[in-house]
Design brief:
18 strands; alpha+beta; 551 residues; 6-stranded antiparallel sheet; 5-stranded antiparallel sheet; rod-shaped; 17 helices
């Protein structure tokens, strides 16, 4: 408080004015004096008014200063004023709270004392640049009071007018960095999941494209980010329309279903896609995220299972047919044996020679049928199990066409059937001789069986392109309709047609023929017209010499 014996500034000012006035005496008339008094009174009023305005302006300025100080102190941003040496000359409350210290205790302290050791070089470089470059500079450092966990801050500084101090703003970026780290972690997870993850904005511009998407579709993330999804991927929807899908996403928040999408090379990929919406605080859709799984292998597995199931059904059907064939074909010859053997045992002395010969012929034929059936059955079983030997060799067709056909010739003679041949003399094939003989035996015997008396059978062979030989067996028999020819080489379908003389037939011989031919890489087919006859043809590889002659 000022002493009472000291004069105020106003008193001192008045004293000086009176002394000055004494130096300049003024002689005024009464009228001039009255005028002067009036002017002084007016001037006094003006001064009073100006003084009131000044007082109001001062009050407003004080209020503004208080508000500024309040804003300065309670701003969410920390403010420091630092000297060239980095000492804190002033700061706001937010800045003090960042360091967890009382503001009064921070003034004249070195700011660097609160910067962690590992980021001090960064801060020192920042401070040096601010004062030498005299432009705005920024950096990120960690602050710590050695008691609490460090915080990450972003600092921006610029020098003040006298170039002796700098004004520094500090923003706590700890939470932001944590969120960024969390986003990086989540992004890393999405990058390495086994499904393609794609994010687009509301206009379907691609915002995220993980590594699996790169591999699945063939485009790198750098090629697609920011571009429309439809520039790269075309969706073929199965079941739901695009409008129905968008409506479901809008109502339920997601859609899941199967689509077909394209790879960069144009190939199509079956996909199970889950598309979800991302909304803002007002529940407005801002983005879409889709998780797309390539189900090619799944589809192949399902298809494989279906094939396995079909194959198993076929095997079961063939097994049933197989047992049926065994029961049928074993029954007939054994019936002959059981029928004639008791008579021979009991009545043989009373038989004439002709009757005995006839019974023996019946029993021999039954034995031959049984042998041929068992032989075919054995070969088919070995073939199915992959145990049958396969030794292809080159041989002349005409030299081996009639091997082991004595029984067939006898059957043909009994029905007065003529068998002719049209085979080039030196035409060769490459085949397993044993299989070839079984093949010809089955096909020629089949022709004899279904050709009536006085009929004709022709065995022909001719070279074909690509070093192949076509062999055919034609007959003038009863022929077949389309239904029979379509099922002729399928064990699961029962034909069970008897020959023209009641000869039994199971179709097993033709199945064996087909297996033999396919083992050689060939094919078999039939052309037939009911009532006019049939032609069975098949293709086998020819010898190399045949190919050389045709070049």
């Amino acid at each position: 408080m000022k002493s009472s014996n000291k004069k105020s500034k106003a008193e001192i000012l008045r004293q000086k004015a009176e002394e000055a006035l004494k130096k300049y005496p003024i002689n005024l008339s009464e009228t001039d004096t009255l005028k002067l008094l009036h002017e002084l009174e007016v001037h006094q009023i003006e001064l009073n008014l100006q003084n009131e305005e000044l007082l109001l302006a001062k009050k407003q300025a004080d209020t503004a200063a208080e508000k500024f100080i309040e804003l300065f102190d309670y701003s969410p941003t920390g403010y420091f004023i630092l000297s060239k040496e980095g000492k804190i000359t002033d700061l706001n409350l937010t800045a003090a709270q960042m360091i967890c210290k009382d503001r009064s205790r921070l003034k004249n302290k070195s700011f660097c004392d609160f910067v962690t050791h590992d980021t001090k070089p960064v801060f020192n470089l920042f401070l040096r640049k601010v004062f030498t470059g005299k432009v705005k500079e920024s950096c990120d450092v960690k602050l710590s009071d050695n008691k609490n966990s460090p915080i990450f801050v972003h600092i921006v500084g610029v020098v003040r007018g006298n170039w002796e101090q700098c004004f520094v703003t500090i923003v706590d970026i700890t939470e932001r960095l944590r969120n960024e780290e969390k986003i990086r972690y989540q992004s890393g997870l999405l990058e390495n999941v086994s499904d393609a993850v794609i994010a687009t904005d509301i206009k379907y511009n691609i915002q995220f494209w993980n590594k699996t998407a790169e591999k699945q579709y063939g485009w790198k993330a750098s090629e697609v980010i920011g571009k429309p999804f439809g520039m790269f991927i075309k969706n073929i929807y199965h079941g739901d329309s695009l409008e129905a899908i968008l409506q479901k996403i809008s109502q339920d928040g997601y859609w899941k279903g199967e689509v077909t999408q394209n790879h960069r090379d144009g190939s199509l990929i079956p996909i199970i896609s889950t598309v979800s919406r991302i909304t803002d605080e007002a529940n407005q859709i801002t983005d879409f995220i889709s998780v797309n799984r390539d189900i090619t292998e799944y589809k192949q597995a399902v298809e494989g299972l279906q094939k396995s199931e079909d194959s198993l059904r076929k095997v079961n059907a063939e097994k049933d047919k197989f047992f049926s064939i065994i029961a049928h074909d074993l029954h007939s010859p054994f019936q002959t044996f059981f029928s004639y053997s008791p008579k021979m045992a009991e009545e043989l002395p009373t038989f004439t020679l002709e009757k005995s010969r006839k019974i023996i012929v019946y029993m021999r034929n039954a034995a031959n049928k049984l042998f041929n059936f068992v032989d075919n059955l054995l070969e088919w079983a070995l073939m199915q199990r992959g145990l049958m030997g396969f030794k292809p060799e080159t041989f002349i067709i005409s030299d081996n066409i009639g091997n082991n056909l004595e029984l067939i010739f006898e059957a043909a003679d009994n029905k007065k059937i003529t068998i002719s041949y049209d085979i080039p003399e030196n035409l060769k094939v490459i085949a397993d001789l044993h299989m070839f003989e079984g093949l010809m035996r089955n096909l020629i015997f089949n022709a004899v069986k279904f050709t009536p008396k006085n009929g004709k059978i022709k065995v022909a062979a001719k070279p074909q392109p690509n070093n192949a030989v076509e062999i055919s067996i034609s007959d003038t028999g009863i022929g077949m309709n389309k239904k029979i020819t379509d099922n002729l080489f399928q064990l699961s379908e029962q034909i069970n047609r008897k020959g023209t003389e009641g000869e039994p037939s199971t179709g097993l011989g033709l199945i064996i023929c087909k297996d033999f031919i396919e083992k050689h890489g060939g094919k078999i087919w039939v052309e037939s017209e009911e009532g006019k006859g049939s032609t069975f043809s098949f293709m086998l590889p020819g010898s190399k010499e045949l190919g050389e002659r045709k070049l």
